[in-house]
């Protein structure tokens, strides 16, 4: 088994000014756990469950859409929160899984947070347009995310200020992929973690597998991949061990809290005039 690459510290750029203030909403832990426990036993059912969770969170009507992906039964699920700018912050996670286990870690843990994060940033008007995407067929070679990116023209690609990917959360404290990730986005996450006293470390999981952030990185979109994998927890993936009991709920909730404030922070600091 290949070993993941660790980095001890993340101090890449000067910290952002202390005057930066962000507003966001934090859902209770019980709600985050309820959505985590709502995983289904097929990809089609998971797509529908994710759709239902977005509606439950208030993403309805013209804001919620399904994007049919060629040769794939379950579509991408897209929830859009319009902002003042044309610039977009995409928050993504895949909902499909390898049926050897329950696919809770990989990756219901990521995609079930998307509706909660929508609620977090929906609390106040935003500068950026936030696009939350549940990607299909990641396990078949990033099919859903690659399809999403390839449907965009050059203008659409250039409008994406950041892509934040969530994959395999909750098996430990929050981890950050730095091997291919955008360094400024990584530093912003570090700043948020320090200010909020939330754990964060760097583990380069990219060396043993690609994730949906790579589909955007390949098109030169600033991207970041957030996960929880270590040398001890990585072997859970794609096995019968991928069950809900492998999620450490306190760590999982800390990741939700960190990403929620991080998205609000990015909305303030990116594309600042």
Overall description:
The chain is α/β, with parallel strands linked by helices. 33% of the residues lie in helices and 17% in strands. The chain has a nine-stranded mixed sheet, with helices on both faces. Helix 7 (183-195) links the parallel strand 7 (175-177) and strand 8.
Shape: globular
CATH topology: Aminopeptidase
**Unreliable runs, pLDDT <50, ≥5 residues?**
6-15
Which class best fits the helix and strand makeup?
A: alpha/beta
Give Rg in angstroms.
Answer: 17 Å
**Biggest pleated sheet:** 9 strands, mixed
Q: What CATH architecture label applies?
A: 3-Layer(aba) Sandwich
Strand order of the largest sheet: 1-8-7-9-6-4-5-3-2
- State the helicity in percent bands: 25-40%
CATH class identity: Alpha Beta
The total of beta strands comes to: 9
User: How many separate domains?
Assistant: 1
* Overall pLDDT metric: 92
H and E string: EHHEEEHHEHHEEHEHEH
Strand content: 15-25%
By CATH's scheme, which homologous superfamily applies?
Zn peptidases
SS element count, helices: 9
Distance between the termini: 47 Å
Task: Please describe the topology of this protein.
Elements: E1 5-7, H1 29-36, H2 43-57, E2 64-67, E3 76-81, E4 88-94, H3 104-111, H4 114-121, E5 129-135, H5 143-150, H6 154-158, E6 160-166, E7 175-177, H7 183-195, E8 201-204, H8 213-217, E9 223-227, H9 249-269
Parallel strand pairs: 4-5, 4-6, 6-9, 7-8
Antiparallel strand pairs: 1-8, 2-3, 3-5, 7-9
Helix pairs in contact: 2-4, 4-9, 7-9
